[in-house]
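Students often ask why we bother encoding 3D structure as a string. The short answer is that it lets us treat folding as translation between two languages. Here is a chain of 106 residues written in the first language.
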Amino acid sequence: MKIGIIISSDDAETCWNALRYANFTIGQKDEAKIFFMGKGVEYQNISTEKFNTVEQADKFLKAGGKIYACGTCIKARNQEGTEMCPINTMKDMYDMVKESDKVVTF
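And here it is in the second language, the structure alphabet:
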């Protein structure tokens, strides 16, 4: 199954749980893609020891997951794209949603 995950929250626990879910789907042999948008693009900056979003994202990428992020949202926050938060477009989100069997939002 192909699962699309859209994360638009900057709450550390919410992002952490969304990323844990993404890792779980990979463990179930499903294909997963994450699209960060809005406040979600800040997930690297809100990582804490208790809710380590960066660790979960790294695990997801190493397992073969794909991460996308809204370039407009990144630029609106005076941030630059990174490997863990690459600059993408609404077309990329559209394609992810269109190709997914299921989409989950956080």
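Translate back mentally: The chain has one domain: 2-105. Keep this in mind for the problem set.
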